[in-house]
Amino acid sequence: GAYVLQVKATDADDPTYGNSARVVYSILQGQPYFSIDPKTGVIRTALPNMDREVKEQYQVLIQAKDMGGQLGGLAGTTTVNITLTDVNDNPPRFPKSIFHLKVPESSHVGSAIGRIRAVDPDFGKNAEIEYNIVPGDGGNLFDITTDENTQEGVIKLKKPLDFETKKAYTFKVEASNLHLDHRFHSVGPFKDTATVKINVLDMDEPPVFSKPVYTMEVYEDTPVGTIIGAVTAQDLDAGSSSVRYFIDWKNDVDSYFTIDATEGTIATNELLDRESTAQYNFSIIASKVSNPLLTSKVNVIINVLDVNEFPPEISVPYETSVCENAKPGQVIQTVTAADKDLSPAGQRFSFRLSAEASNKPNFTVHDYRNNTAGIETRRNGYSRRQQELYFLPLVIEDSSYPVQSSTNTMTIRVCRCDSDGTILSCNVEAIFLPVGLSTGALIAILLCIVILLVIVVLYVALRRQKKKDTLMTSKEDIRDNVIHYDDEGGGEEDTQAFDIGALRNPKAIEDNKIRRDIKPDTLCFPRQRPPVEDNADIRDFINQRLQENDVDPTAPPYDSLATYVYEGNGSVAESLSSIDSLTTEADQDYDYLSDWGPRFKILADMFGQEESYNPDKVT
Fold first, then answer.
1. Based on C-alpha coordinates, what's the Rg of the chain?
2. Could you tell me the pTM of the whole model?
């Protein structure tokens, strides 16, 4: 009796003429599913609970016929296609009440371990199913979601499985419609329940450490080889296997420790220094002896504990200042201490003056007992002219064991300050300001001094250069140097000033040299050197001297200039030099010396007649 639709036929006959325009409706095809009202043409369902899942579409043939007339009843037909729309009137149903799954214990968390399915004959969104695990045995280990494409329930693992801990799990899964139609609540609950049994399969697993992280402590400077801790791993499989340990080498830091492969004990391999590295972090790997490919890893953290090995030091600058007009008891600097060691909680530093400074009436130290101290003045005023710098030895001591202390020397500079204690100047300039010298005057004086020094240096350099130029024209090539002398000789009596042997005429050169500046005692005629042939020219003379120099072992090993005063044979004037002497002293005539004037009188007396020479008369 549910309304489906209404059809209407029209008749062109005159409705006022009999029953010619009166129409009656009937169904020729479509029964017994649908019925039609003969007068109104309203089509209704004829059977209750028509099921779309059984038949979705229907074709209904409708006839409209008039009631009379001369020609009798006339009829017309039409076809109506009726499609049933789906409603959520069917609950989901599991095809079986128990599902069995086998899951390896090595399955990863979050992975899908199985699927189950409930069937809903509805279509579209009315067939969408939601799966839930009933609280109980498997609620903490498993989860289930719906595959939107297949409407299957996908069971996933929330926590790792362990065959040795539990071998089987049983829980219930509920399937229900996601979209409910309130018109069919009375039909019954639109859900179904099934049981899921999961059997855990035993797998060969890696060893398991007793802790997720190992933390150890060791004092710095601990002797090499000292055991500081141990790690433990076990094979939990049914056939338990032995375990071997080794360090996961990643960098050089791991070499500071070693591990016993069998026992798992960790020992130091090098001396540790907390000031260099305060914490070590590395990994240890455990593997099964029966299957070395099965390994597990654990992180190890080793904290290096501090040993009090460094003395505390002053942490503020080592230099401070004091005003000339400072009063006794005035704090000029607050000092704190720093320790390279890792200071423990409650570390205390004490401050005091050294023994030699305690008796001096200049400064003192006040320990505030909160790891700070104040430098206080003990005098009424200070003078920069008397003493500009003071050196204060400060002893700092820590409270750790063993106790460490150090002496730190603070430099205190006396400064000029105003009446409020503001420092005006601490440099050297402040000492000269009271006598009336300004900064500009000091700069001018310094510039004048620099200019004078430059002038003196230039003058000395020029004098040296001029002296060198007069002595030697060139010092660059020591092989061909011609040296000019501008000095006057010592007179006739200066007989050792230079050797004139190289200037002698070759004919007058003697093997046994006899001094010519004095009268010889005896007329001894030495053996003469063979003279150069009278007809030898200058070229022969040069070649002879060249050969003598070539074979001379004392000749210099570089080019040199040898000067000879030789005029050669055949000169009309013969030799013009007195050096070109006769062969012997006896053949030499010195009478011409008397004609040269009084300057050569002594020479004339010496080389004149022997009886006329009297050395006692020589002045």
1. 66
2. 0.36
